[in-house]
Design brief:
The chain is α+β, with helices and mostly antiparallel strands and about 110 residues long. The protein has 3 helices and 4 strands. Helix 2 (about 55-70) links the parallel strand 3 and strand 4 (about 80-85). The protein is globular and about 35 Å long.
Length: about 110
Amino acid sequence: MLARPHRLVRGSDYRTVVRRGRRYGGPRLIVSVLDTGEERPVRFGFIVSKQVGNAVTRNTVRRRLKDACSRQLPLRDGIDVVIRALPTAAHATFAELLADVDGAVARGAR
């Protein structure tokens, strides 16, 4: 579970990251990364639409993504990350989602 300082909560923050951040796509996720340069912890946000599946499936995908992101926390300060799950994420294993998040965040945090 991600602590409150590591979560994006405002819609304006989500829009800023998605519009101005660098985008990295894969078969299951689209990851937007924005380096704000601010002195604050890294923050993560998740977008899991109804196209992914019913509520149980969406929440399972969201929980898996949150766990994968909690393993990414030693990133440098000031980075915002928004992860959009694609419909294929519903059938992905945790290991596949973890690999996708690791790869995209590593490319974006360089």
